[in-house]
Amino acid sequence: MREKLPKNVVSIDVEDYFHAETFSSVVDRTQWDSYTSRVEGNTRCLLELLGNLNVQATFFVLGWVAERFPGLVREIAAGGHELACHSYWHRLIYKLDPAEFREDTRRAKDVIEQIAGQPLTGYRAPTYSVTDRSVWALDILTELGFTYDSSIFPIRHDRYGIPGAPRAPFRFQTPSGPMTEFPITTFRFGGQNMPVGGGGYLRLLPQLYTRLGLKSVEKEGLPIVIYIHPWEVDPDQPHLPVGLKSRLRHYTNLSRTYDRFRSVLQQGNYTSFRESGLDESAKDFDFYAWNQHNNN
Ligand SMILES: [Zn+2]
Fold first, then answer.
1. Cα torsion for 143, 149, 151, 154, to the nearest 10°?
2. pLDDT digit string (tens) for the chain, length 296 residues
3. What is the CA(27)–ligand 1 centre distance, in A?
4. Ligand 1 center to residue 17 CA distance, Å?
5. How many angstroms is it from 127 CA to the middle of ligand 1?
6. How far is the CA of 209 from the centre of ligand 1 (A)?
7. What sign does the CA torsion over 152, 124, 35, 78 have?
8. Can you give the pTM of this predicted structure?
9. Interval between CA 21 and ligand 1 midpoint (Å)
10. From ligand 1's centre to the CA of 3, what distance in Å?
11. Fewest CB atoms within 10 Å of the CB: 36, 70, 200, 213?
């Protein structure tokens, strides 16, 4: 019998350049409408690439974007891609209380579902902000009808990450029902989890690093979950006045990312979460108990 190829997942976090957390100190969300939006053109550029490669992806769309550009949401759906939720206001979950999180998530889910005419089952937190301080959010996601989440980054980082969390998909019970988590891809090096293949890591780190890292993950037999933002393939976006660290984080290699992303897609077997069937391979793991134990 032929062994089934491991399915890897490609995901797009659909937001505009001024939504990035890097700019949260200089861009007030009540002023978002005053910025020149580039999300439609940039997302179409990625849609075209995916179409040419015959690859389906999961698009985690910001509710704010969906409301302003419903045609874009319909184009994504028409391309056979999966629509999923990336919150409404792109706020860090660990800075919200459960009621604020519930309200934000429900609003985004309703907006996108009404436009797309399909139920959303997947969620990705803004800036991967499901950390040991905000695992309660996973219970609320289940309560709202989500069946999977892809927000946990098992690395150490100043804004996100649960360093010791499982690196492979896992299923666990929340008080509201079962939830499957698809952690963002890492590979093991020098006893550490190293981020690879997504967003800033794809842009900032050498291509050789990405190639070797992804190869190492495949060797382990783990599925790869990569992500990109539409603004990451847009070297012509307006520059916002932020400090050096943020400038480096956001603007480095914008002109190279499109080619790098295409090359990653060409070297693996990628699809959407919906099509991947990965939820069937998720192992049971008592995540809430583990997290509680870790924080005591
Ligand atoms: Zn985001």
1. 110
2. 444 555 899 999 999 999 999 888 899 999 999 999 999 999 999 999 999 999 999 999 999 999 999 999 999 999 999 999 999 999 999 999 999 999 999 999 999 999 999 899 999 999 999 999 999 999 999 999 999 999 999 998 888 889 899 999 999 999 999 999 999 999 999 999 999 999 889 999 999 999 999 999 999 999 999 999 999 999 999 999 888 888 888 888 888 999 999 999 999 999 999 999 998 889 999 999 999 898 87
3. 15
4. 10
5. 5
6. 24
7. positive
8. 0.96
9. 8
10. 35
11. 36
Instruction: Find the 14 Cα to ligand 1 centroid distance in Å.
Output: 7
- Cα(205) to centroid(ligand 1), Å: 20
Instruction: Tell how far the Cα of 39 is from the centroid of ligand 1, in angstroms.
Output: 12
Task: Report strand pairing: 270-271 vs 8-14.
Answer: parallel
Place of tokens 């009540």: 30
Q: How far is the CA of 239 from the centre of ligand 1 (A)?
A: 18
Q: Is the dihedral of CA 21, 265, 40, 56 positive or negative?
A: negative
Q: Measure 214 CA to ligand 1 centroid, in angstroms.
A: 22
Helix (H) / strand (E) containing 262: helix 257-267
The CA distance from 34 to 193, in Å, is 40
Instruction: Write out the two tokens for 193.
Output: 């989890």
Which residues line ion ligand 1, judged by CB < 5 Å?
Answer: 13, 15, 126
Asked whether 105 and 140 are in contact (CB, 8 A), the reply is: yes
DSSP 163: T
Helices (H) and strands (E) in the chain, counts: 11, 12
Where do we find the tokens 């006893």? 191
Side-chain-facing half-sphere of 40: CA atoms under 13 Å: 11
| Span from the CA of 15 to the centroid of ligand 1 (angstroms) | 6
Would the CA dihedral through 287, 289, 290, 292 be positive or negative?
A: positive
What separation in Å is there between the alpha carbon of 93 and the centre of ligand 1? 12
Residue 7 has phi, psi (to 5 degrees) of -95, 130
